[in-house]
Amino acid sequence: MRIGALATTTGVSVRALRYYEEQGLLTAARSSGGQRHYGDSAVERVHLIQTLYASGLSSRTILDLLPCVDAKVNTPESRALLRAERARIDEQINQLRDARDRLDAVIAASESPASGCAHVESTALVP
Amino acid sequence: MRIGALATTTGVSVRALRYYEEQGLLTAARSSGGQRHYGDSAVERVHLIQTLYASGLSSRTILDLLPCVDAKVNTPESRALLRAERARIDEQINQLRDARDRLDAVIAASESPASGCAHVESTALVP
DNA sequence: GTAAAACCTGACGTGGATGTGAGAGACAAG
DNA sequence: CTTGTCTCTCACATCCACGTCAGGTTTTAC
Questions:
Q1: Residue B56's pLDDT is what?
Q2: Which residues of B are less than 8 Å from A103 in CB distance?
Q3: Which of A70, A120, A102, A45 shows the shortest CA–CA distance to B62?
Q4: E-assigned strands of chain A?
Q5: Which chain B residue's Cα is nearest to A94?
Q6: Which residues contact A12 (CB under 8 A, 6 or more apart)?
Q7: What is the DSSP letter of B123?
Q8: What's the pTM?
């Protein structure tokens, strides 16, 4: 498939796909005219890249991680990197849970009392 | 306390604190000489702002949210905004869980087999 | 063969949360 | 009073994952 088809099937822009290649995250065969051609596995690859981006990883970190994911590299350093990023993600999940709980407190306070509800215990957000 | 003390106690840079004020997220009393003075509650305030930033909210969204948090505003729109942001955070938590699980699969594959471990079932990342 | 659609490589623009430096004023300590 | 540290307000710089436009080439459809 060419880049436009990959873009539509993955929901990622053409520009982003070229950027992934520029960063070394995604490779493509080239036609005689220089156009990129991707195999079906590229779809999963792009989804993985998107997932990692959405987790707050930089393209540089993803670039370091992908060789581990491709199981071509397995050194103590690569394992440490994997564990470190896993820990970072875990920490971020906890942070998000905290934020969600705070919002839940605000929502509960704003919805349960009678209409108007002009004031809330100020400790709701200061546990 | 002055801005430097607030910065050190919260771990946020002086520049960032001025930026929060510029965005309307944080207010400060001013001395006769124009210097900012904060009460103790500013520490919690900054932590809240940081939490919301870390959840991927923009300063504009936080600005819209803070009146709800301060319990000064409670309109149908504000409640809808709260619920929408809560949903966004929930979605992001799920995305992070997904990424963490993928990394866990890679970690498990790279650590459990004997040393070397040159290959991994390719389905590990394609559930 | 021809026109439309897709693709190519540069290269500059963007937005948001800061970093950074300049030059000047404020304030506590001696 | 003086010195050193902190703070003030501009205002420009940075990073990063793209958006976007320009000008040209390739592929596809008829």
A1: 86
A2: 82, 85-86, 89
A3: A102
A4: 29-30, 36-37
A5: B93
A6: A6, A46, A50
A7: G
A8: 0.81
